[in-house]
Design brief:
Shape: globular
Number of helices: 17
Radius of gyration: 21 Å
Strand order of the largest sheet: 2-1-6-10-15-16
Structural class: alpha/beta
Oligomer: single chain
Distance between the termini: 33 Å
Number of strands: 16
Strand content: 15-25%
Largest sheet: 6 strands, mixed
């Protein structure tokens, strides 16, 4: 079943869903899910002038947009049917539902279980100046209201980010929809493929954002998780002034509609209405429910990296190579085949760099570190330099640290990186067969031995349990 035409292919959810499903099928996930035939043209963009590379990035996103009229007429069950068709049809002890995270992809790959997303991106065709937040808000009002009215099981988070998405928002606006109910396709998949008495693991990213209420189940979000803070988007500051001046903007601070609430962050945050429906369904069919709650999208990355290192040692494999990924630049299949330890970053920004550097400073050193950085073609607020990545990450390798298929001189506009990062993994000489999946009992053993992780909580039956507590299978 092909992807619905109104769902973005360049989004975190789509990429992470396809990467998870490919690994469960025993297949690689090349070029962030793009057709292999695009690898040559992607590499060829390195020969283009900077402005043409930016144009190529914009055209790639614009090609996936839908009209506002089409966006208002989406069928969420069409999305759900496509999601469940990605996975092998077998029984699973666990099925994960909820927020996206690249680290979650690797957790699912280790457990050999599917992930059913809550949030999807609909890229709606729309032309505004990137720094005209009020215009972006106004143009999305009517199609957003119609989408919500037509789909009572969804809530809409209309998002405009003039920092990280500065190029894309010239041609499109971001309608992120979150399901509030499982729906027919997800329920059928659970009944057919979750083992009797099995576990529904709810992935809940607790990240929120200040928003403007448009109506029931409909908010507008100015800005997004990344290098700039929530406050900088709404109230400005020296970094905003400098950024807007560098881009010859007519303004030195963003405006926008008045804030009146706090909502789950559009891309990563979990909408709790879905949890209520999951618990209803699980109670009806005698399934177990557990919750994995994390403050930031990358909060579970240290836990998952440590899990892989522990797992490799249990299997008497080397555990001395780290593969650091960002956004949709991830490859669970070749990570396992090469015995690499995955550490996922939300984006290529200062907060993600700081978290990875802190992780490396508090762990046994790795002999090798490979680094992949998502390329969004924008010199944005909070973008570390290539030298920052070398000094704070790659230099910590005991033997060698290098960029995985990235042309550093073109960063952050190296579109060829999409075609090269997975090849860099495949060039490693190490090869191991795909392992049998970890069991919940083995995950329990790891968590009991490892201790607590900041910003990560496990809950079951409404009662918080620390990672030291046993998670019954």
């Amino acid at each position: 079943m092909s992807k619905p035409s109104f769902v973005a292919g360049f989004d975190s959810t789509t990429g992470m869903l396809q990467a998870t499903a490919a690994c469960l099928r025993g297949e690689p996930f090349p070029a962030a899910g793009h057709p292999p035939g695009l690898k040559g043209p992607a590499r060829a963009t390195r020969r283009l002038p900077q402005r043409l590379r930016e144009s190529a990035f914009l055209l790639g996103g614009a090609a996936e947009t839908v009209s506002s009229r089409r966006a208002a007429r989406i069928d969420p069950e069409e999305i759900s049917e496509w999601v469940v068709e990605q996975y092998p049809k077998r029984k699973y002890p666990v099925i994960v539902i909820g927020s996206a995270s690249g680290a979650l992809v690797h957790l699912c790959a280790a457990l050999g279980v599917p992930w059913l997303p809550q949030t999807f991106l609909i890229p709606v065709r729309q032309r505004v100046h990137p720094d005209d937040v009020d215009a972006a808000f106004a143009k999305g009002l009517e199609p957003g209201r119609e989408l919500v009215a037509n789909n009572p099981t969804l809530q809409l988070h209309h998002m405009h980010d003039a920092n990280q998405d500065r190029i894309m928002v010239r041609a499109l606006t971001y309608f992120r929809v979150k399901r509030r109910e499982l729906g027919e396709a997800y329920e059928r998949f659970l009944l057919d493929h979750l083992a009797p008495g099995g576990t529904i693991l709810i992935s809940e990213c607790a990240r929120t954002w200040d928003t403007t209420t448009v109506g029931p189940r409909h908010v507008f979000q100015h800005g997004a998780v990344g290098g700039a803070t929530d406050a900088e988007f709404h109230y400005g500051g020296p970094r905003v002034v400098d950024y807007l001046a560098r881009h010859d903007s007519p303004v030195r601070q963003w405006s926008g509609p008045e804030l009146d609430g706090v909502s789950p962050e559009a891309e990563w945050g979990f909408a709790p209405a879905l949890r209520d429906d999951i618990e209803r369904f699980a109670g009806q069919h005698q399934f177990q429910v557990r919750r994995l709650i994390f403050d930031e999208p990358e909060s579970i990355s240290p836990m998952v990296a440590d899990l892989y290192r522990w797992w490799y040692r249990q299997r008497n494999l080397p555990s001395n190579r780290l593969f650091a990924e960002s956004f949709i630049i991830l490859e669970p299949y070749w990570t396992l085949r090469t015995g690499s330890v995955p550490y996922w970053m939300t984006f290529n920004t200062d907060p993600s760099l700081a978290r990875l550097a802190e992780y490396l400073a508090n762990r046994e050193p790795f002999d090798e570190i490979m680094l992949a950085l998502f390329q969004n073609a924008v010199e944005m607020i909070g973008l570390p330099s290539v030298d920052d990545w070398r000094e704070q990450v790659l230099s910590r390798a005991r033997r060698a640290g290098w960029f995985a298929g990235l042309s550093p001189e073109h960063h952050p506009r190296d579109l060829g990186h999409l075609a090269s990062y997975d090849d860099a993994l495949k060039e490693l000489p190490a090869r191991y067969p795909l392992p049998g999946p970890l069991t919940l009992a083995e995950l329990d053993d790891f968590l009991a031995a490892q201790g607590d992780y900041p910003e990560v909580r496990w809950e079951r039956g409404g009662v918080a349990a620390s990672q030291r507590a046993t998670m019954p299978a």
